[in-house]
Design a protein that fits this description.
Blueprint: H1 14-40, H2 55-62, H3 66-78, E1 83-85, E2 88-90, H4 100-111, H5 142-151, H6 158-166, H7 170-183, H8 195-200
Antiparallel strand pairs: 1-2
Amino acid sequence: MKWFKHETNAHADAKLKKLRMRYGLEGVGLYWYCLELIGQSVEPHNLTFELEHDAEIIASDVNIHIDRVQEMMRYMVDLRLFEQNGGIVTCLKMAVRADEYTQKAIRKQNESGECPDMLRITSRQAPDKVPSNRKKERIERPHLFDAFWDVWPKKVDKKKALAAFKKLNDADQQRAIADCGARYAGTEKRFIPNPSTYLNGERWNDERVGHGGACDLPYGAGGI
């Protein structure tokens, strides 16, 4: 990824304000630095949106003590500026803020039936955390619904949306997250379906007509 969209009033975002109130510009700077690290590793063959650098490397790069870096990162996860699963930090919402080249790569994988590997379950997980019967037991990842809800531009009937989201398999959940931003960019809210309608109808499979850009993100005007 060569660039990602960063709106000029991102500083007014409520969650970024909380981060700034607690850690000052040091915390905000660390947030944007981590987004750059994630973005620079995103390629058509790597759509995990994963922060591959660990706290020790980041601390050395930005000249901040490792304990403080870890503390700030935990707070950013608590604010849902990032997701964390099995020790892996991701920012799935960057998918709707990606450059056009990356957006095309995501759409291409969606159209081919291949889900963007936006959250990689790897061998780093402990064996006892892997379900013994994959057909009957699904790995619960509630933060994926949080990621969907954050990027959905018309927030109504959250309980119905959550119930519809849980019915989807992991691949379709991630397709929905990647699709909705570009599909409803610039669309008036009255023409946007309720989230449960979108999910139950699997509308990420519908033909997309005349859409560009990305939908509003959850953190006010521009926080990813």
